[in-house]
TrEMBL record:
Catalytic activity as recorded in UniProt: ATP + (deoxyribonucleotide)n-3'-hydroxyl + 5'-phospho-(deoxyribonucleotide)m = (deoxyribonucleotide)n+m + AMP + diphosphate
Protein name: ATP-dependent DNA ligase
Stored InterPro entries: Adenylation_LigC-like, ATP-dep_DNA_ligase, DNA_ligase_ATP-dep_cent, DNA_ligase_ATP-dep_CS, NA-bd_OB-fold, OBF_LigC-like
Molecular-function GO term, any one: DNA ligase (ATP) activity
Record-linked Pfam families: DNA_ligase_A_M
Disordered, as annotated region: 293-326
Transmembrane segment boundaries: none
UniProt KW rRNA processing keyword: no
Gene3D superfamilies (UniProt xref): DNA ligase/mRNA capping enzyme, Nucleic acid-binding proteins
CDD domains, alphabetized: Adenylation_DNA_ligase_LigC, OBF_DNA_ligase_LigC
BP GO annotations: DNA recombination; DNA repair
Upper classification of the organism: Bacteria, Bacillati, Actinomycetota, Actinomycetes, Kitasatosporales
Organism: Streptomyces himalayensis subsp. aureolus
Coiled-coil segments on the chain, per record: none
Length: 326
């Protein structure tokens, strides 16, 4: 088996032809060519027939920024040019599916990986290209999980060295890094008597209460315990007139019942965090009746626009070359 980091980005297939024709495709088949001109230009500059599988990422400050990737979608050219200059994207390549007229889907992984390394070395590829690390050493993969989750690596992908590429199938194993954290129950779906899931928040240093996570459906035991602890929200609850979406990127409004922010929940979550908010639903592990909201860590300092946790775009960018080939 071989291990590779799992990045917090957009899965992307890069199709390029010798004449400079390029097509960038999302996992769902969406055309991303116009949204990532720096990657399209780099692919056109190869001057070869290639199909590369990889992950588009944007690095902001000290971590990968999924929100910055989303800003690229449906953005008009003038604004897109500004985003490209301020927050350039990279393509972290992890598979080569075709090169110089030779289709490689049936090749074993180890041979496709060797061909991908040769492509990088032959062209001296650098930013916006990056070649993902790969290892057969389990200890090294565990080190990535321990040390890289803070910068936006969500976990590891496990592949077989002899495995062919299998389009449209889940042929790889994904292992997400999980972390334990605490937040305050600020609202629930369902009712106070029968809560179904929880919306969790944290306070900022200046007293604003912001959403940081939404839970998966609560276990029967947690629902029963929580129903006996919840109190109705006061008229000044900051989420009373705030609308939350049913899931990340959706416009569908979630029906919630605000509650008094008094109960602390401990939860398990992955490392996909955008400006202090977990993107994927978290799993409530237990209620912490032994601690108070004052014991919960503060929300990270961000320029927040509303209590739902949405933040202004980040302003800082790492030095050139933070992601390089190799």
């Amino acid at each position: 088996m071989v291990f590779e980091p799992k990045y917090d980005g957009f899965r992307m297939l890069v199709f390029a032809q010798p004449g400079g024709e390029v097509f960038l495709q999302s996992r769902s088949g969406r055309d991303l060519t116009g949204s990532f001109p720096e990657i399209a230009d780099a692919a056109a500059a190869l001057g070869e027939d290639v199909v590369i599988d990889g992950e588009a990422v944007i690095h902001t400050g000290s971590r990968l920024d999924f929100g910055a990737l989303q800003q690229r979608l449906n953005t008009r050219p003038p604004a897109l040019s500004r985003l490209e200059r301020a927050h350039p994207a990279h393509l972290v390549a992890f598979d080569l599916l075709q090169h110089a007229g030779t289709e490689m889907l049936t090749w074993p992984y180890r041979e496709r990986r060797a061909a991908l390394q040769s492509l990088f070395q032959g062209h001296g590829l650098a930013a916006p290209w990056a070649l993902t690390p790969s290892t057969t050493d389990r200890a090294q993969a565990e080190k990535w999980l321990a040390e890289w989750s803070a910068v936006g690596v969500e976990g590891v992908v496990v592949k077989s060295l002899t495995q062919p590429y299998q389009p449209g199938r889940r042929g790889w194993l994904k292992y997400r890094a999980r972390h334990t954290a605490e937040a305050i129950v600020g609202a629930v779906t369902g009712s106070l008597a029968r809560p179904q899931s929880a919306l969790l928040g944290r306070y900022t240093s200046d007293g604003h209460f912001l959403m940081v996570a939404r839970s998966t459906p609560l276990s029967a035991r947690t629902r029963a315990e929580l129903s006996g602890l919840l109190s109705p929200a006061g008229a000044d609850h900051p989420w009373r007139d705030v609308q939350f979406s049913t899931h990340w990127g959706s416009r569908e409004v979630l029906d919630i019942t605000p509650v008094a922010p008094q109960i602390v929940a401990e939860f398990h979550a992955d490392s996909a965090i955008d400006h202090g908010r977990w993107r994927h639903p978290v799993r409530v592990h237990r209620l912490r009746i032994d601690v108070t909201p004052d014991d919960v860590p503060l929300h990270p300092e961000q320029a927040v626009t509303d209590p739902s946790g949405k933040a202004d775009p980040p302003e800082h960018w790492p030095p050139e070359g933070r992601l390089t080939a190799g």
